Amino acid sequence: MNGTTTAVRTGLPVPFTGTRSGRAPLTWGQRAIWHAIGRTAPNDHYFNLGRILPLADRGAPVDEPRLAAAVAALLARHEALRTRLALGEDGEPGQLLCAEGEITVEVREEPDPARTGRAAEELVAELTGRRFDYTGEWPVRFGAVRCGGRITHAVFALCHLASDGHGAEVLVRDLRLLVRRGSAGRPAAVTPYDLAHQQHGPAGRRRGAAALARWEADLRRMPPTMFAAPVAEPCAPRFWTGRLVSAALPRAVDALAAVHRVSGSTVLLAASAALVAADRGHRAAAVMPIAGNRAAADHRDLVSTLSQDALVVLDLPEDLDGGAVFTDLLPAAWRAALAGYRAAAYDPVEWDALLARIARERGTEVHPYCCFNDMRLVERPLAATELPTAEELAALRSRTVTDFPATQELVACRYCLHLTGDDSALTVTLTADTAYLPPAAILAHLRAIEELVVASAAGAPPRLAALPGLLERFTDHGDQVS
């Protein structure tokens, strides 16, 4: 028994009506995630996004009619939620926008007021835990927790074909406003339907070609891959996720970002890239960060999958005397990241063709198999007067914890680093192929990232020549992993 109660469930039907319908090609972002889904199926529920919206914390009580009206308005407002995958006669995937339909909100009755939050977590886990029927199901599942006749939480599971993480946060914001006020202001001026036609038009094709030209230049000079050869028998399941939760990292990252005039994301990207290169003895690190592609004003509130892979190639400095330190990398990492993010919008079909051509020319597969995903939405650089002391960082670091929260059989990568959190703590997770990074090495990389950043913020940046030894030390002295 897990301590949960048997919940009473009911279905709340919600009809909705939009303003238009039609067919369009997939956007570039949709094509990219569709390719990833195909590589990961049948475990593609991995890509589902889940969110919880508490509704009992403030404002007037929410009942089912009020929630149903807000959900209907949300579906009318965001065309992505009314769009299904459609396969053409030639099997080519496209998108089908529907003007109207009906969706059912699963309502779970929770008699214990103290358990409503936990019930919401269980419900969203259930809704995200199964794969979507991409052609036969709306790309969002709604749920709600009811206690004493009132809705305490709304939850939803979102198909990644419909939106990325930023779009999911837009949905949370809009659903809150629609429940509380009945209005969420003007919707985004551009929709996924519009964007698909733009990207597949002449101007879009020119932009995509320019981005792939940048990719081609980097693919020709980078190491073919960051993890070329297995180093151990893989575990079962093969892919393990290590997690480090650090209260010291937010302060240290912001301090380095302020002093070196880069973003906090660049600091962490440089740390992970330097360690990957040191682990395999590369003179350059090739990393594929996830780019949000939301710099344009009309994309900032767009619910769609805009995120695509960027390519950042960071050359390590010539270091004949062994005196180069980690912070020496930050200016170059900032420039390389900017260049990579600018070239992160392109047609994935043409990207596949480019990788195949480069592989033929170089005589080997060319792919970093090294990913970086900063899922935090807001950077908060710290003012110079607020820089932390070494003592403060040491005290915060004493609270760091590591564990392995998940394993799975298949992920289409070898090193996938994810960042989440806020000013109070940063959570760094590394999902890796244990044939290339055994569990002890996964924890070593996480601890070494913290060491690099915190030591540098405390005024003692580690030498680049010492990074292989740093990884070895954390591997040898890490926790027992079973």
List the helices and strands and how they pair.
Blueprint: E1 8-17, E2 22-25, H1 28-40, E3 49-54, H2 64-77, E4 83-87, E5 93-97, E6 100-109, H3 116-128, E7 140-147, E8 150-158, H4 165-180, H5 192-199, H6 202-221, E9 239-246, H7 248-260, H8 264-280, E10 284-291, E11 308-309, E12 312-315, H9 330-342, H10 348-362, E13 371-374, H11 390-397, E14 401-408, E15 415-421, E16 426-433, H12 439-457, H13 467-476
Parallel strand pairs: 6-7, 10-13, 13-15
Antiparallel strand pairs: 1-6, 2-5, 3-8, 4-5, 7-8, 9-14, 9-16, 10-11, 10-12, 15-16
Helix pairs in contact: 2-4, 6-10, 7-8, 7-11, 7-12, 8-9, 8-12, 12-13
Walkthrough of the structure:
The chain is α+β, with helices and mostly antiparallel strands. It folds into two domains: 8-198, 2-Layer Sandwich (Chloramphenicol Acetyltransferase), CATH 3.30.559; 224-476, Nonribosomal peptide synthetase, condensation domain (Chloramphenicol Acetyltransferase, 2-Layer Sandwich). The protein has 13 helices and 16 strands. Strands 9, 10, 11, 12, 13, 14, 15 and 16 form an eight-stranded mixed β-sheet that branches. It has a five-stranded mixed β-sheet with strand order 1-6-7-8-3, sandwiched between helices. Strands 2-5-4 form a three-stranded antiparallel β-sheet, with helices on one face. Strand 7 (140-147) and strand 8 (150-158) form a beta hairpin. Helix 6 (202-221) runs parallel beside helix 10, helix 7 crosses helix 8 (264-280) and helix 7 packs across helix 12. The longest helix has 20 residues, at 202-221. The relative contact order is 0.14. The model is unreliable at 1-5 and 381-385 (pLDDT under 50).
